[in-house]
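Entry 14. Structure prediction run on the chain below.
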Amino acid sequence: MTAPAQPAVPDLLYSQDEEDLRSAVRALLADRAAAPAVIAATESGTPYDPQLWASLAGGIGAAGLLVPEELGGQGASHREAAVVLEELGRSVAPAPYLTSSVVATETLLALCGEEGPAAALLRELASGARTAVLAVPFATPPAGPVAALGPSAKTVRGVADAQAADVLLVPTAEGLYAVEASDPGVTVEPLVPLDLTRPLAAVTLNGTAGTPLGDAGASAAAVRRGLLAGAGLLASEQLGLAEWCLTETVRYTRERHQFNRPVGSFQALKHRMAQLWLEIVSARAAARNAADALATGSSDAPLAVAVAQAYCSGVAVHAAEECVQLHGGIGMTWEHPAHLYLKRAKADSLAYGTAGSHRRAVAELAELPAP
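Output returned:
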């Protein structure tokens, strides 16, 4: 009698190639997206840095990590893309990597062969020459209903990075369409977001003629695939954000003195930072498990993604809150970057589904009765 096949054990460790990629991305972000530069960019109202994107997407090749080599990409996996997002989370750099190089790219991968409009657009995204976003609200969960535009609904609100996109991937009742953002019938109206490093917009289409990419059934599955990858790798961004908050807080409490002692030596603060460290270790395991499940095409990927989002979003918010509080007065100022991390953490906690929606998904996928 043949023994049943054992499930693959997820690999949560980082390979040397992944660490090399991390070093390259971190060095680039330290040079072009240091805290003063990001704060200045958000205050200017134009947070995106085209030179940063050109270096990250084309120079390092990060935009094509998920794209096969035959389509002009790097032929890597979600594990490498997760490393890039960890570093982007550490710097809260305004870059459309998650929305374009992960969500839009994964959506197109589900619809393309070696030729056709989806393949052609993928080649442009992989080179970093163009960006695309999926025209759905940023809060749309992988398993939730997707707003489809049509004659009675021509506007979708809360689209992340729409202002930086060259192409909009628009779900309709007939299927998915690629619409040029420069089309005269396209209006992208900036909204006032909580997170100034990832702007939101309302996208209105009026009399536009897009390029069809797939029929209704295939497009719906493709959008789900894109949103699932986005939710899974968002956990890595949240992990990087939380790690920066803890590292910066430990550094500050070592340097800040009170009663002739570092405030970090006070027992109450040590306990709070130790608790946060434990949460971040668990968040790293959850985020890496989600990235590995997506990379290997595991049948448990939806469960791994739901677990990661259910846990990591809360950890990121807690880390950012502790960062602001333990920095004392300086943490409340506009000049210190702590507020950027708190706003990004809060905004990310709603992106691609709330923690509550992902807990419900865990209950359904694991066949556990919900309370």
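DSSP finds eleven helices and nine strands in the chain.
Filed with the rest of this week's runs.
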